[in-house]
Amino acid sequence: MKRRDWIYLGVSLAVIFAAIGLLYPFWPFEKVIKLGLDLQGGVRLVLQAQGLQDMTQAQRKDVVDRLVTIFAERVDQYGMANAEIRPLGSDRVEVRIPGAADPEQARELLGRTAILEFRKVLDEATNPDDLAAKRVIPQEILPGKEPGRYYLVEGDPLLTGEVLDNAEVRVSTDPRNPGLYIQLAFNRQGAERFADVIRRLQTGDRLAIILDGIVYSAPAVSASIKEAAAQGWRAVQNSTTITGRFTYEEAKLLAVVLRSGALPTRVTVLEEQRIGPTLGAEYVRRGALALLVSFVLVILYMILYYRWYGFIAGIGIASTMLILVAALRAFHATLTLPGIGGLVLTLGMAVDANVLIYERIKEERRAGKALNAAVAAGFHRALPAITDSNITTIIAALILFLLGSGPVQGFAVTLGLGVVASMFSALVICRLLLEHTVLGQRVPVKLAPTVK
């Protein structure tokens, strides 16, 4: 073997073993490759930003970009994996969450404005009409989280959630108030402002903790918190909690939306689509069946037409699919139903290079060249056509990826990676097999009889 062949062999083995290592333990498939919404099931939401009519195009873009960022942070912190979040037009955001089982939970997570405010409580009643006579502008009457509780609060907030540094779910150790609560932590600026608020309030005054217009709790200012505020901002930095009769999921969601910050504007859900995992599993089964049938038919055709060379083509196609799936795993690509179509298309396209090379080798053999010379000449003559056709396909895939979205991008990624993998298999792996194995000695062509 020549030095070039040793290099080809080393690279081929490295790529194959790397692909196997990336895909191990191979099953279950959804743990190996990220599946899209159409295959795994999940939730798709389209949310529209409100109040953008009077904004410039640049301001609208800024609001939508901030929504995308906050949505991504909320979904990530809540633990919803592989979500796809992207702008949709000038005032909408599309969110795809594979694996999510509850659209209501997704809607609550994304749709909450999460405006946190601290206001002084002026009065409390079980009927809002009892507070209406006492209210003066800009005071407000807000409902409590517990049914039948209403609060008259000052109009101007003393503090907002912009100064929060963290929010965590904690379990109460107080037997008088068992259950879960949210522990708030202010940044330094917020803690200084909170300490100033406490110093200005009197012992016994109540401070309402309000989230999106609902009073979650209204604790009274105690003498101990007044003393802590007098000592400085560090003493009150972690002293505030939000209590309530939370389930764990409610408390977790509330902590997430507080940590990720308030939305820059209200949003409404325009579209909601839920795809069940049963339908997704059926798509995977049918896609896998189509892939298997395509593989068998292509290999059978190549064997029938090119005989032993067809086996080499089959090995090349198998290595192409192995490398392609491993590349999807390495690039953290999401496989969609059109992506499976891209895999099937790759199967058919993968033999293009083999067909071109084999036909050139047959022509060289018919011309009377020795086997090794015919193989080398066949690769040399076929290379320009293989390169041109595959580069144009890669360009088309790149355009689809840049201009498309969702499933179209999944198809483009699969197609582009498949082209690269098929070129490597045909030009490197198959060449080694043709030049250095017994299979490569059996050219599917009859030589013209030698004239003496």
Structure characteristics:
single chain; 452 residues; alpha+beta; Multidrug efflux transporter AcrB transmembrane fold; Alpha-Beta Plaits; Gyrase A, domain 2; 3 domains; 4-stranded antiparallel β-sheet; 18% strand
What is the arithmetic mean of pLDDT?
83
Overall structural class, as computed from helix and strand content, comes to alpha+beta
Q: Number of DSSP strands? A: 15
Q: What are the low-pLDDT stretches, counting only 5+ consecutive residues below 50?
A: none
Counted up, domains total 3
- In what range is the share of β-strand residues? 15-25%
Instruction: Name the helicity range.
Output: 40-55%
User: Topology as H/E string?
Assistant: HHEHEHEEHEHEEEEEHEEHEHEHHEHHH
CATH superfamily name of the largest domain? Multidrug efflux transporter AcrB transmembrane domain
Q: How far is it from the N-terminal to the C-terminal residue, by CA?
A: 34 Å
